[in-house]
Design goal:
The protein has two helices and ten strands. The longest helix is centred in the last third of the chain and has 14 residues. The relative contact order is 0.21. Strand 8 and strand 9 form a beta hairpin. It is an alpha+beta fold and 179 residues long.
Length: 179
């Protein structure tokens, strides 16, 4: 069964944004002529607050003919299966974040083999960048973000227990690219 939503994700509307991050002034909706759209603008300093998605970097780590997945020990998706991934830090390259997140969540070292795809949704405040990867070291183990780590044959992927629609789509793309 394909997951149908991204639970517990940040709201994509900007109604909750009330104050300017620069001066603390009140933000108000204003039409920005050169952009032809409404944005949040500070009534005191004129700063335009751009409400943009966060970038998430991830990897599908392969070792021989299996891929490593982890069962999440945190929300969102607590107890569900996913491949390793997480937010890109400011000043960090996206591929470096995918390698770091894989190590943090699985204790495996990987080499990135290329971009699998980029996934975004109109109602989810993240853009997911997924790489194909090969395990080059480390020993798989649980971490604070994972309650279980397991290598799956492609025919064994727990499709009915995946954390998010993007994980389902990326693994489907991975299998298609592997043929």
């Amino acid at each position: 069964m394909r997951p149908t939503c991204h639970p517990n994700q940040p709201a994509t509307d900007s109604s909750w944004v009330k104050h300017c991050p620069r001066c603390g002034g009140r933000l108000e909706d204003r039409f920005i002529e050169f952009e032809q759209r409404i944005r949040k603008v500070c009534s005191d300093c004129g700063y335009i607050y751009y409400f943009n998605p966060k970038v998430v970097a991830a990897a599908v780590p392969r070792q021989e003919n299996r891929i490593w997945l982890l069962r999440r020990s945190i929300e969102p998706g607590l107890g569900k299966w996913t491949f390793p991934g997480g937010y890109v830090d400011l000043g960090e390259r996206v591929p470096d974040a995918a390698i770091r997140e894989t190590r943090e969540e699985t204790m495996l070292d990987v080499r990135l083999d290329g971009l699998l795809n980029v996934y975004s949704y109109f109602n989810v405040a993240v853009v997911l960048v997924v790489y194909r990867a090969t395990v080059i070291g480390g020993v798989a183990g649980i971490t604070p973000e994972s309650q279980e780590i397991r290598a799956f044959e492609l025919s064994e992927i727990p499709w009915n227990d995946l954390a998010f629609p993007s994980i389902y789509e990326a693994l489907t793309d991975y299998i298609q690219a592997s043929k």
